[in-house]
């Protein structure tokens, strides 16, 4: 089925369009809106963005494959990102990752069988002073302790 | 010397500290922008800005006022743009996020003054997508400012329209490089462009553009508020053109990670012990990264050699590099870079090869792949350092590391190549014995993580 934006996201798009002198510039914001709705960027989404902004599908595909945060495949309902870069690693990020993998029974890059959680490692999330940290959907969780991680994961699994 | 100030951080930690009401009450918000727009000309604004000696806070340290002056003097057929770089993602850098979350109005007011100074009517603040709270706070601030008539068609009643927009990235470290950021704003893949043309001639949408770091812009109202020359004099390094105050961060193996506002010129030791509360487990310092992972590491044993009395480092001749005031010039003379001023501390007992490999994973992941030396070089640096950790690398491969890193230097379109090669070369040079121990099987990956501070 062809993709279409929900009415509230369509309104948001109308707000964004006049901010830029070209339609192509709206590629990134529009892809964000689509992913928010669909969870990932499907071929239908690429077709939609291409027609909506009058840019080639190859351009849209090129953008999608360049940026880490556009999911090219379906992902879980919740996104868990654990930062693994040096300042976090120095404060135990790899133990956090191991702990999450054990708790969820999956490896980084995988989604739980019930489709609820996708666990991934992230490169520096600009929270070095409060390491170790993880991002769950839109929220940051910092100065993580074992108890805190357990709480967060429990809440997600039960949601 | 450590000199605490609170121009940008006064609203930090206050309830509703990010609102217009707090900004106007505690920081005389928007009075400076009003004065600049209603009483000064564009030329006067740029001349004043130059006196502040604000060195770009994004890492390269280019003087902000000078950058503004590169913009065409008259606005021709092509509009001018201001692009504010808030794609904070350099490992070890965590300062811009605090401003956006806790004092977003300083960013908006800075945008107004900067737009006026460079002849722009539109500013895009490029925030990395992960920082959802930052984006929400900035958008809230823009809305509040607009409702008060500080933005829009006639800010402060002056016929000089200014609009500020937040543009979200999508998870690419390279988009913090200025030309790559411009491509990303135009809706393209974030691949850096060749320079020249420089953004001041052909930037966003082919129009003259100034790209400034977010902290650079946020500090502008403070500088103009007290008079830019006075502002510059707050710094211990005012005499060598490095003025004002900045946000310093400390992270890694310290007892207390923090972001604090200080007059320019504290030393590494002051940051580690007075701000960071010392090293975890009261250990010594193995090495420190002065300002983001692309800046070469420094070891506390390194001594300053500056016998020439004319050298800015001469007063510190013979002292440890950890006792030199952190400034753009001083760090350059120490063989590293000031970068973003957020220090990553690595405690004694930590395995430097493990740290090296960790950083190489970052660069391998984030290389945009446009230039062969960087794309292939970063992959080889990771492959060889991983083999070293696994105890499978030969002496020949270790010797090759230096050539790989050297092959990247100067052979790429943007500075990401140097950003990868410089820290690699520093690790190779400063931890050669440890690297060789891996080749001889005297160190192993299993031991490497034993001394990492345990997670509680």
Descriptive account of the structure:
The complex is a heterodimer of chains A (159) and B (456). With 159 residues, chain A is α+β, with helices and mostly antiparallel strands. Chain A folds into 2 domains: 7-66, Orthogonal Bundle (Arc Repressor Mutant, subunit A); 78-158, Glutaredoxin (3-Layer(aba) Sandwich), CATH 3.40.30.10. Chain A has 7 helices and 4 strands. Chain A has helices at residues 7-16, 27-38, 43-53, 57-66, 86-89, 93-104, 146-158, and strands at residues 78-83, 117-122, 134-136, 139-141. In chain A, helix 2 runs antiparallel to helix 3 (43-53) and helix 3 packs across helix 4. The radius of gyration of chain A is 18 Å and the shape is elongated. The model of chain A has no long low-confidence stretch (mean pLDDT 97). In chain B, helix 14 (352-366) packs antiparallel against helix 17 (416-430) and helix 16 packs antiparallel against helix 17. With 456 residues, chain B is an alpha/beta fold. The mean pLDDT of chain B is 97. The longest helix of chain B is centred in the C-terminal third of the chain and has 18 residues, at 372-389. Chain B folds into 3 domains: 20-231, NADH-ubiquinone oxidoreductase 51kDa subunit (Rossmann fold, 3-Layer(aba) Sandwich), CATH 3.40.50; 244-347, Ubiquitin-like (UB roll) (Roll); 352-442, NADH-ubiquinone oxidoreductase 51kDa subunit, iron-sulphur binding domain (de novo design (two linked rop proteins)). Chain B has helices at 20-27, 31-39, 42-51, 64-69, 96-102, 104-118, 132-147, 178-185, 214-218, 220-226, 228-233, 268-275, 328-333, 352-366, 372-389, 395-408, 416-430, 432-439, 445-448, and strands at 80-86, 120-127, 163-168, 209-213, 245-252, 258-263, 285-289, 342-347. Chains A and B meet through helix 2, helix 4, helix 5 and helix 6 of A and strand 3, strand 5, strand 8 and helix 14 of B.
């Amino acid at each position: 089925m062809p993709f279409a934006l929900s009415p509230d996201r369509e309104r948001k798009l109308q707000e964004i369009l006049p901010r830029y002198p070209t339609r192509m510039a709206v590629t990134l914001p529009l892809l964000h809106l689509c992913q928010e709705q669909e969870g990932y960027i499907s071929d239908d989404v690429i077709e939609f963005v291409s027609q909506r902004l009058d840019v080639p599908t190859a351009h849209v595909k090129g953008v999608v494959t360049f940026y880490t945060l556009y999911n090219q495949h379906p992902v879980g309902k919740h996104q868990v990102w654990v930062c693994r870069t040096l300042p976090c690693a120095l404060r135990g990020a790899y133990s956090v990752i191991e702990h999450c993998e054990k708790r969820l029974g999956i490896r980084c890059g995988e989604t739980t069988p019930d489709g609820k959680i996708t666990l991934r490692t992230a490169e520096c999330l600009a929270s070095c002073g409060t390491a170790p940290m993880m991002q769950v959907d839109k929220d940051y969780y910092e100065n993580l302790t074992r108890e805190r991680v357990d709480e967060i994961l429990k809440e997600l699994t039960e949601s | 010397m450590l000199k605490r100030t609170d121009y940008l951080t006064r609203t930090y930690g206050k309830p509703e500290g990010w609102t217009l009401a707090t900004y106007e009450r505690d920081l005389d918000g928007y009075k400076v922008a009003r004065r600049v727009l209603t009483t000064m000309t564009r030329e006067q604004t740029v001349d004043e800005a130059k006196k502040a000696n604000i060195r770009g806070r994004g890492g390269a340290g280019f003087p902000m006022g000078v950058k503004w002056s590169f913009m065409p003097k008259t606005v021709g057929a092509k509009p001018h743009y201001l692009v504010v770089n808030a794609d904070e993602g350099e490992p070890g850098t965590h300062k811009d996020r605090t401003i956006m979350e806790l004092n977003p109005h300083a960013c908006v007011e800075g945008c107004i003054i900067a737009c006026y100074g460079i002849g722009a009517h539109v500013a895009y603040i490029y925030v990395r997508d992960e920082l959802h709270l930052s984006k929400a706070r900035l958008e809230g601030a823009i809305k509040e400012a607009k409702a008060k008539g500080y933005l829009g068609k006639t800010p402060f009643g002056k016929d000089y329209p200014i609009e500020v927009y937040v543009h979200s990235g999508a998870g690419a470290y390279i988009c913090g490089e200025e030309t790559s950021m411009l491509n990303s704003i135009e809706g393209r893949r974030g691949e850096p462009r060749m320079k020249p043309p420089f953004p001041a001639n052909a930037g966003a949408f082919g129009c003259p553009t100034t790209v400034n770091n977010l902290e650079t812009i946020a500090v502008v109202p403070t500088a103009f508020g007290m008079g830019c020359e006075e502002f510059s004099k707050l710094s211990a390094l005012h005499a060598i053109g490095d003025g004002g105050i900045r946000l310093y961060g400390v992270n890694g193996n310290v007892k207390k990670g923090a972001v604090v506002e200080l007059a320019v010129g504290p030393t590494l030791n002051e940051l580690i012990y007075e701000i960071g509360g010392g090293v975890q487990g009261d250990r010594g310092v193995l090495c420190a990264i002065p300002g983001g992972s692309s800046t070469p590491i420094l070891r506390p044993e390194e001594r300053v050699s500056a016998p020439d009395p004319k050298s800015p480092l001469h007063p510190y001749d013979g002292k440890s590099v950890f006792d030199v005031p952190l400034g753009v010039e001083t760090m350059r003379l120490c063989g590293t870079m000031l970068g973003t001023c957020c220090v990553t501390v690595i405690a004694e007992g930590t395995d430097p090869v493990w740290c090296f490999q960790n950083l190489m994973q970052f660069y391998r992941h984030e290389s945009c792949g446009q230039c062969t030396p960087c794309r292939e070089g970063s992959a080889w640096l990771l492959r060889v350092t991983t083999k070293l950790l696994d105890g499978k690398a030969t002496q020949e491969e270790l010797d090759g590391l230096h050539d790989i890193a050297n092959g990247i230097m100067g052979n790429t379109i943007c500075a990401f190549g140097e950003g990868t090669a410089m820290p690699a070369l520093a690790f190779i040079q400063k931890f050669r014995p440890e690297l060789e121990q891996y080749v001889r099987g005297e160190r192993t990956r299993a031991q490497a993580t034993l001394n990492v501070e345990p997670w509680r």
